[in-house]
Design brief:
The complex is a heterodimer.
Chain A: H1 3-26, H2 31-34, E1 40-42, E2 46-47, E3 50-51, E4 53-54, H3 60-69, E5 74-79, E6 85-87, H4 96-105, E7 110-115, H5 121-131, E8 137-143, H6 146-150, H7 156-159, H8 166-169, H9 175-180, H10 182-185, H11 196-211, H12 213-216, H13 218-236, H14 249-268, E9 272-277, H15 290-306, E10 310-313, E11 323-327, E12 334-341, H16 343-359
Parallel strand pairs in A: 4-7, 5-7, 5-8, 8-9, 9-10
Antiparallel strand pairs in A: 1-6, 2-3, 11-12
Helix pairs in contact in A: 4-16, 5-14
Chain B: H1 6-21, H2 24-40, H3 47-66, H4 70-106, H5 124-140, H6 149-157, H7 170-178, H8 185-217, H9 226-257, H10 275-281, H11 284-300, H12 321-339, H13 343-365, H14 372-394, H15 398-409, H16 421-448, H17 452-473
The chains are: A alpha/beta, B mainly alpha.
GO molecular function, one term (chain A): hydrolase activity, acting on ester bonds
Protein name (chain A): SGNH/GDSL hydrolase family protein
Subcellular location (chain B): Cell membrane
């Protein structure tokens, strides 16, 4: 091997270590907030009982503890980051989930929300099955979002909600979908085995992380690197928030089948369902293909009618000024935000839901 | 022990330092002890099996060397029976039992399935082939019997290649154990370079592609389009290549750190312009092993050996066409079965036999041409066919593989793209990368040699990316694919 290559390896080692150190010091951020942009803050709602809005298995115990302090007939609201993000956040701003929690408390029910960034319907179905008993769920509130039809796979943090309930669920009507995603719902890591290799590796990993902080931050750094690649890809291919993206037909049909299974299971379990089309920015051209978006609304209405669920179209309740821009945390590229809005938007969403629920068979939970 | 781990890096560093501090004979003790420790990190209870297999061939080869005539042949048969017997019990027993049960149920008999929990010992297919080839070489007289037990055990257990090759012949390795060597910069720098490349291929490329592949292959094939299936076939083709070539790089690099040269196992296989050439470039140590110890002996009892490929005896006069065809298909069925105890692997092997056979027939008819267009066409057809062959390798059973293959040939299945958009992008990027790697390696790198300053800058940039990638992604998310074989 030539001298330049040997020098390259040596210098490369120094530079790569320096690069990781710089990355850790300067661009490390909470990756789950990255897609929200710098103007949008992610918060999870609280009430006097404690947390009433959680994300997944990582913080779910907080919501369970709060619920056990003053339990009541449960209302489970599932969704994506729209539920836990506020654009141009100011202290004191409230989420729709908090407002609606108060409303349900006034009639003796207990609303708890679980929201995941980039959630998909399979994850919602898993969360519903996992949480139905925990919160004595009588009503499920579920937004029907076109993006949820595109996203694939099940995150470990969601499948972990199931715990020991995972096996019996394979017999439920969405078991086949769960089986299809089994690679995603099982931990592929070999390190959980108590082999000499796994024990040594875990010990070494801890030791290196103790003396080298960048090593400890590798999970986040990997996420940041992937996110940076994603942003660059979009930039190179001219993809932006307004680029129309059609959900593939097969993916659409698969997710619609999951939604139908979810409605069927909920009905069999005696849980009412309230489906709604969530707010969608209308002051500028958006990324949804108009025909597919219309079809989504029609399909959601049809399934709601078929399974005696309530249905509301709330896509126009948040006006243009309540939507914002998103500036990413890596390169600072700016783009329109089609998913998250201000606290005023959150208030309007809560108000619209209250009205729709009050006009429905439930009233404020009157049937229970 | 897994190569893609901190444990291995620490282990290797300690072994290398101690190794070079010791005199030549003591180095062999270090190799043996570290190799057994390396294996024991997976499971210590399978070390006796490894040593049993090694000792059986050591003793049989010694006995064989002292005899002549038919008793030599009998001892060789004993060796082959022991080796294949070990493989049959640990790797194929359940497969044979299940297959027999299925056949029996077809003709109306019902057997209860074997309720055995047999663990496949790590690397068994590799070390069994290695010990078996040693005895065969001694029998053939192509390698002298090794009387030094320590040197022989080092050959069988040499940790860099113990669990996933390259599969070595005694002549590749044993003489190197006796050569006096001094630690030098060339050994060390070559070793580090190969280990870095191997880790990069494994943890940055193969393991990242694995996530897309796992998701794609877990989907119902009914929901996939023809484009999707091609993409998944290509992606798995890249995953297994980066995974296995990565392992081989690390093995060669680790051996180099100890002053030992191992033969190459891959040589830009996806640039092959024919199925025959592909097998001269892919898993070279296995394909030459199978050729020398299975194919040629079946064909004509030949002892000929050469450097790769399947064409050694194919065009020689005096061998019947039917005998060649039988040898080809029989050998490839075995090649498939070597990879795994499942009919999908046999299908994979026979598929490659068809490719090699078809190429043999076509190349005999077509005029020899070196035209660029012919090369490009040959590459495109070979790559597509080889990638499609990976489907049964990765699919979840025969029906799954068949359903995916049907998508490839059904013109009505080519309606749209249903995988995550990045899947297509990654597949296209990887295809570009494997095509460009060879010209870069032999063109640009050679030219860089004339400009030391430019070369230093380019290498620095390159290794910064490689090392940063390895540091970021080094973790045990996926075992090496070939560990299961």
């Amino acid at each position: 091997m030539a001298r330049p290559e040997i020098a390259g390896i040596f210098l490369g080692l120094l530079l790569s270590v320096a690069l990781l150190e710089i990355a850790r010091d300067t661009i490390l951020f909470r990756l789950e907030d990255a897609a929200l942009g710098t103007e949008t803050v992610s918060i999870f709602g609280t009430a006097p009982e404690g947390r009433v809005h959680c994300q997944d298995a990582r913080d779910g115990h907080l919501c369970e503890e709060a619920y056990l302090r003053d339990p009541g007939p449960g209302v489970l609201w599932l969704g994506n980051s729209q539920l836990h993000a506020i654009n141009r956040y100011r202290p004191g701003d409230r989420l729709a989930t908090e407002i609606l929690h108060d409303w349900f408390r006034s009639c003796g029910a207990y609303l708890v929300a679980y929201s995941q960034p980039n959630a998909n319907l399979l994850e919602h179905a898993i969360a519903f099955h996992a949480l139905a008993d925990t919160y004595d769920v009588r009503l499920l509130i579920l937004p029907v979002v076109l993006d949820d039809f595109r996203e694939q796979g099940v995150r470990q943090s969601v499948s972990a909600l199931l715990g020991d309930a995972a096996l019996p669920l394979r017999g439920s009507s969405f078991g086949p979908f769960l089986d299809e995603n089994r690679d995603a719902t099982t931990d592929r890591s070999d390190s959980k085995e108590e082999t000499l290799q796994a024990l040594t590796e875990a010990w070494l990993d801890r030791e290196v992380a103790t003396y080298w902080p960048a090593w400890a931050a590798r999970d986040q750094l990997r996420g940041v690197a992937s996110y940076a690649l994603y942003l660059l890809r979009n930039r190179i291919f001219g993809i932006n928030a307004q680029t129309q993206r059609v959900v593939a037909e097969n993916a659409y049909r698969e997710k619609l089948a999951v939604l139908e299974s979810l409605l069927r299971d909920a009905r069999a379990m005696g849980v009412d369902v309230f489906l709604y089309i969530p707010p969608y920015r209308a002051d500028i051209a958006g990324p949804y293909h108009p025909e597919q978006y219309a079809r989504l609304k029609a399909d959601a209405a049809r399934l709601a009618s078929e399974y005696e669920a309530q249905f509301a179209q709330l896509d126009t309740v948040v006006a243009g000024p309540e939507w914002g821009m998103v500036r990413d945390s890596v390169f600072g590229f700016e783009d329109y935000d089609f998913m998250h809005f201000t606290a005023e938007g959150q208030r309007r969403l809560a108000e619209a839901l209250e009205m729709a629920l009050a006009n429905s068979d439930h009233g404020c939970f009157s049937t229970h | 022990m897994l190569f893609n781990s901190l444990t291995f890096i620490l282990f290797l560093a300690i072994v290398v330092v101690v190794y070079w501090l010791l005199p030549i004979r003591a180095r062999l003790y270090i190799i043996l002890a570290s190799s057994l420790l390396f294996y024991g990190f997976w499971r210590f209870d399978f070390i006796p099996l490894l040593l049993f297999s090694a000792m059986a061939d050591y003793l049989l080869a010694l006995a064989l060397d002292r005899r002549s005539g038919s008793s030599r042949r009998a001892l060789l048969v004993v060796s082959i029976c022991i080796n294949l017997g070990v493989l049959a019990v640990f790797k194929y027993l359940l497969f044979f039992a299940d297959s027999a049960g299925s056949i029996a149920s077809l003709i109306g008999y019902e057997f209860s399935s074997l309720d055995l929990n047999i663990i496949l010992p790590l690397g068994i297919s590799f070390y069994i082939f290695q010990t078996m080839s040693y005895t065969i070489d001694v029998y053939r007289g192509s390698y002298p019997v090794e009387r030094d037990l320590l040197r022989y055990l080092c050959f069988v257990t040499f940790f860099p290649q113990l669990v996933a090759g390259p599969i070595l012949r005694a002549g590749d390795l044993i003489p190197q154990f006796s050569e006096p060597r001094r630690c030098n910069l060339q050994f060390l720098s070559d070793g580090i370079r190969r280990i870095l490349m191997g880790l990069f291929l494994k943890v940055v490329l193969a393991d990242q592609i694995a996530g897309i592949v796992d998701t794609g292959y877990s989907r119902d094939p009914g929901g996939l389009t023809g484009f999707d299936v091609w993409t998944l076939a290509f992606l798995f083709g890249f995953q297994i290549y980066f995974d296995f070539a990565g392992y081989s790089h690390i093995a060669i690099g680790a051996a180099s750190l100890l002053g030992i040269r191992l033969p190459e196992n891959f040589n830009y296989p996806y640039t092959a312009t024919s199925p025959r050439e592909f097998w001269q470039r892919w898993h070279i140590s296995l394909s030459t092993w199978i050729r020398d110890y299975v194919y040629l002996p079946i064909l004509r009892g030949s002892r000929t050996s050469s450097a790769g490929g399947w064409d050694v005896a194919e065009n020689q006069n005096g061998t019947g066409r039917s005998a060649r065809t039988f040898s080809l298909y029989g050998t490839w069925a075995l090649m498939g079965l070597w990879h795994g105890a499942a009919w999908t692997f046999v299908v994979w092997g026979l598929y490659h036999a068809v490719l090699v056979h078809a190429y043999r027939l076509i190349s005999a008819v077509l005029p020899n041409s070196s035209a660029r267009l012919v090369g490009v066409l040959g590459w495109a057809v070979t790559t597509a066919l080889v990638m499609a062959a990976w489907i049964p390798f990765r699919a979840q059973g025969g029906a799954h593989a068949m359903a995916m293959w049907v998508k490839l040939v059904d013109p009505r299945a080519y309606g749209g793209l249903t995988l995550a958009p990045d899947s297509y992008l990654v597949a296209a990027l990887m295809l570009g990368a494997v095509l460009l790697a060879r010209p870069i390696r032999y063109g640009l790198v050679t030219r860089l040699g004339h400009h030391p300053v430019v070369a230093t800058v380019v290498y620095t940039g390159f290794y910064t990316v490689v090392i940063a990638g390895c540091l970021l992604f080094l973790r045990q998310t996926h075992q090496f694919v070939y560990f299961q074989f």
